[in-house]
Amino acid sequence: MSTDVGGMSGRLVEFSGALREHGVAVGSGETVDAARVMTALDLSRREELREGLASALLRRSGQRGVFDALFDLYFPAAVGRAHGAAAGSTNAEPSAPDDVGRLREDLAAALASGDEEELRRLATSAVEGLGMFGGGTGQGGWSAYQTLRRMQPENLLAKVLAGIRGAGQDGEAAFTDRLNRGEVERRISGFRSMVENEARRRTAELRGRERMARYGVQRSADQVDFLSARRDQYAELRRAVYPMARRLATRLAAKRRKSRRGGIELRRTLRRSLATGGVPVRPVYKTRRPGRPDLVLLCDVSGSVAGFADFTLMLVQALSDQFSRVRSFAFVETTDEVTDLIAPGAADPLGLAKRIISEARVTKWDGHSDYGNSLRVFTEEWPEVVGPRTSLLVLGDARTNGGDPELPVMHRLAERARHVHWLNPERRQLWATGDSCALDYARVVQMHECRNARQLQQVIAGILPV
Q1: DSSP character for 333?
Q2: Other CB atoms closer than 10 Å to residue 404's CB: what's the count?
Q3: What is the DSSP letter of 320?
Q4: Residue 390 DSSP SS3
Q5: Average pLDDT rounded to a whole number, residues 42-66
Q6: Residue 449's CB: how many other CB atoms inside 10 A?
Q7: Reported confidence tier of residue 36, pLDDT bands at 50, 70, 90
Q8: Burial of residue 306 (number of CB atoms within 10 Å: 0-12, 13-18, 19+)
Q9: How do beta strands 335-337 and 390-395 pair?
Q10: Which of 78, 126, 192, 362 has a CA-to-CA distance to 103 between 20 and 30 Å?
Q11: What's the pLDDT tens digit per position in 162-211?
Q12: Helix ranges, 114-207 (H)
């Protein structure tokens, strides 16, 4: 890595721009702070530089993965083939099976010992020998997927555990396996990240850093679509729920404080102005006493939108103390109340949607969403729930599977409630496609696109009443 300060300053500006493109709020102030950090650090100590820039540029949780991936592009550990890499093929043909076998043997030993330097060297060697495609031309590069498909590090778990276990009785071996399984899985995940970073670094030298930063780095978890998120991204979203809820609660409290000031009270203002020659220097305002509203959730927990419902229920659960009362209803083919299932402290918030499907009466026949019947059951069995103080949130993609959407029922709910908002996890461009009735419902109630956690946070902060 170059240690030229002038060149590094330009690199830092490019790095900050790439972070902004990935949704990380980096302004001129943070960039100036990062430049000061660079002047105080030994630039040849790359990991110290990484941590120093992270402390200056990051302000929110959940963004470290994006930061690390971009840092490895803009401040690479090496240029070209890294020192210590095994001599790889110079064409698109894979290495011989014997070479792959030796790499896997070495990888198993490194995973057992936990040697980070050896794992990093093996990641570099694996990408060099197994990951090249396109013959090293401008249209080619190095593929982490191709490398990991040949290496199959997950399949080494049992072998690594056996190596760690060593001699011992059966009971001791079982205990050791349970103790070490999580650590070995963490090392395997770390090796996968090393392979991805090395493949990205090598490809960026052919195609350019800017292009790789734009298309080769995954966005932070709060910008990933709910409907396409992977399991690890959902885990990161779940960790971000409560910090997000605290920020939203602070905003709601501020809005509630501001809303207490009503219009000017004319008589008292005029009386007070007599002390200042008739000039109303200090007007007197009426005091409003807004109560906390009731919140009712009506959410689709079918498989297509279960992840979105899961995350939104967790968020509202964390915000429950901002409302006088929260009642929750779930549906797939029919509707059932699930307030007790998602009450704070009632159960582990992990997998709320799955728990609701297994414990509540929300399905009848085939498990496909039936919005019309669910709305009808909701209004017939719980007619008193929605009233003038109620804010109703409907969560779902509005795909009725060809059934009757029961728009008159939605009309009656909208007339009875204080507010009705529909949060839809699909892109707005898809609302008029297939069996979606989103545009029909949107003519009755306000419908908001909530594809990711960032959009959801903005929508919730804007629509929840005070």
Answers
A1: S
A2: 14
A3: G
A4: strand
A5: 87
A6: 18
A7: very high
A8: buried
A9: unpaired
A10: 78
A11: 777 664 444 455 555 566 778 888 899 889 988 988 888 888 888 888 88
A12: 116-130, 144-151, 157-165, 170-207
The number of beta carbons lying within 10 Å of the beta carbon of residue 44 is 10
Phi, psi dihedral angles at 444 (to 5 degrees): -100, -45
Return the pLDDT at 366.
77
Q: How confident is the model at residue 94 (pLDDT cuts 50, 70, 90)?
A: very low
Longest dimension (CA), the chain: 98
Q: Is the dihedral of CA 244, 250, 253, 254 positive or negative?
A: negative
Report how far residue 370's alpha carbon sits from residue 406's, in angstroms, rounded to the nearest whole number.
10
Q: Would you state the torsion angle of the CA atoms of residues 8, 13, 17, 20, taken in this order, to the nearest 10 degrees?
A: 100
Sheet holding 446-449, edge to edge: 335-337, 325-331, 294-300, 390-395, 419-424, 446-449
Asked if 386 contacts 430 with a C-beta cutoff of 8 angstroms, the reply is no
Helices (H) and strands (E) in the chain, counts: 19, 10
Determine the Cα–Cα distance for residues 405 and 436; give it in Å rounded to an integer: 10
User: For the residues of 210-273, what is the DSSP string, one character each?
Assistant: HHHHHHSSPPPGGGS-GGG--HHHHHHHHHHHHHHHHHHHHHHHHHHHHHTEEEE-HHHHHHHH
Query: What is the DSSP code (8-state) at residue 436?
Result: B
